[in-house]
Amino acid sequence: MPTIRPSSDLRNKYSEISDFCHEYLEPIYITKNGKGDLAVMSIETYERMAGKFELRKLLLDAENDFKEGRVIEFEDAFKKIIESL
């Protein structure tokens, strides 16, 4: 279940929010006038999430390259690397 806090807690209980985000490595949802407004998370959580998105993009790019025939055999690729040294 997500942790939900009012926007006033950002000002009044910042340390508590920061400690929670670092300890549990999950975001806190911030409401404004009773409605969802922001998600606050630690830098570590953000970087982990961004890394997952980047990895997913790279895997999709590789899958598309394979489907469209933009691949070469391992031995040929290795030979090209050795030749470029």
What does it look like?
It contains four helices and three strands, in the order βααββαα. With 85 residues, the chain is an alpha+beta fold. It folds into two domains: 41 residues, YefM-like domain (YefM-like fold), CATH 3.40.1620; 43 residues. It has a three-stranded mixed sheet with strand order 1-2-3. β2 and β3 form a beta hairpin. It is elongated.
Summarize the structure.
This protein has helices spanning 8-12, 14-24, 43-67, 74-84; strands at residues 3-6, 28-32, 35-40. The protein is α+β, with helices and mostly antiparallel strands and 85 residues long.
Provide key terms for this protein.
85 residues; 2 domains; 4 helices
N- and C-termini, Cα separation: 53 Å
Oligomeric grouping of the chains? single chain
What's the number of structural domains? 2
State the helicity in percent bands.
55-70%
Order of helices and strands: EHHEEHH
Number of helices: 4
Shape: elongated
Please report the total strand number as a whole number. Answer: 3
Radius of gyration using CA atoms only: 22 Å
Biggest beta sheet summary: 3 strands, mixed
Structural class: alpha+beta
Q: Strands across the major sheet, in which order?
A: 1-2-3
Overall pLDDT metric? 96
- Strand content is 15-25%
